[in-house]
Amino acid sequence: MSSTSLTYLEGLARNYAVRAVMSDREGNYADAINYYRRAIEVLEKILQLYPDHSLNSIYKQWIGEYRRRISELDGLLGKVRISTGGGSESSEDLDGFFKVVEKTGVTFANVADMESVKEAVKESIVFPSKRPDLFPLGWPKGILLFGPPGCGKTYVAAAIAGEIDGYFISVDAANIMSKWLGEAEKRVSKLFTKARELAKNGNPVIIFIDEVDSLFGTFETEIGGEVRVRNQFLKEMDGLDSKMDPRQLVFVVAATNKPWRLDEAFIRRFQKRIYVPLPSKEARLAILKMYSKSLKLDPSVDLEKLSEMLDGYTSSDIVDIVAAAHMRTVRELFEGVGGKGEPRPIRMEDFAEVIKHRKPSVNREMIKVYEMWYEKYKAL
């Protein structure tokens, strides 16, 4: 097998592992389990195809760690089902259609920069949740987060739930359309019924819908089931009128990488439309500090300068770059002394070499498209 194939597989495994860790930290345990399993599959493929590879011993160690974490997360998901009162039908919903997390474990303090995003969310969700009596005219029940992929929209949504100490119900819109077509209207009704149950006695609830353009996009051809589920969803959203029941603190937060595909009727339901852009220099520096704090850095590493070099990169790009720079030291250790001892500290040249071979995942032309849509539909 070629070295190019090996490099591709290692990159794929690293990508899955990074996504797993990010989902794990955000409290999206089902997604984390899925990504950990994918990382294991790729690493096992490397062990099978390259039995003499110098890094195989560390890959075996990673596989063991990922399996242990999967077991722990399975236990946590089981606790969530019990704490939310799920019977057999509720457990099915939690496993296949939507996931309920009682405590996300993240707040705005964990979100680097994004001050304009935080401010808009505070006015729309945080303040009404803490003092609903101050909002006699009601408050927005629909918040749309849009922007380039990998910039933290899911993380922001989880932080919102943590900020208001509320339940976090995560829904994959693509899963609604593909897996439950024909039964989708009933599933959507169950989703909102569950949210209302959790919201009793003033408990705030965030319904987070990822990839919402797959549910509310405009298409040249549609079948009846797609139209019905969209109508059901709009009907349920219209029912979340705070003036009808001021005690009902249910908010719908949707995320999309393709806002231009959204149907006009859907856009109108989301009174707040918030652009989540590429990370600023301050945010890039915070991300670098967060993900390098457990690594050994050489004195030559200047994180301030590095944050400037990473202008135009997404948050997930930056995490991948830190992981790749660390991998250079691990690979060197195994190729040099067979994996004995500890890797050398990561040097600035390691980061420079990785950046030289890795371009931003979102180009400038695409950013202009997001900014144009924002100018047309922005509502902060």
Structure description:
With 380 residues, this protein is of the alpha/beta class. The chain folds into 3 domains: 83 residues, Methane Monooxygenase Hydroxylase, Chain G, domain 1; 193 residues, 3-Layer(aba) Sandwich (Rossmann fold); 83 residues, Helicase, Ruva Protein, domain 3 (Orthogonal Bundle). It is built from 16 helices and 6 strands. The chain has a 6-stranded mixed sheet, with helices on both faces. α8 packs parallel to α10 and α14 packs across α15. The longest helix has 28 residues. The chain is globular, with a radius of gyration of 22 Å. It starts with a helix and ends with a helix. The relative contact order is 0.11.
- At the fold tier of CATH, the topology name of the largest domain is Rossmann fold
Query: What would the principal axes of the Cα set say about the shape?
Result: globular
Q: Helical residue percent?
A: 55-70%
Strand content: 5-15%
Short description:
With 380 residues, this protein is α/β, with parallel strands linked by helices. Helices cover 58% and strands 8% of the residues. It has helices spanning 3-26, 29-49, 56-83, 88-96, 115-130, 153-163, 173-179, 184-198, 213-216, 224-238, 264-269, 281-292, 303-309, 315-337, 348-356, 364-377, and strands spanning 98-101, 142-146, 167-172, 205-210, 250-256, 272-275.
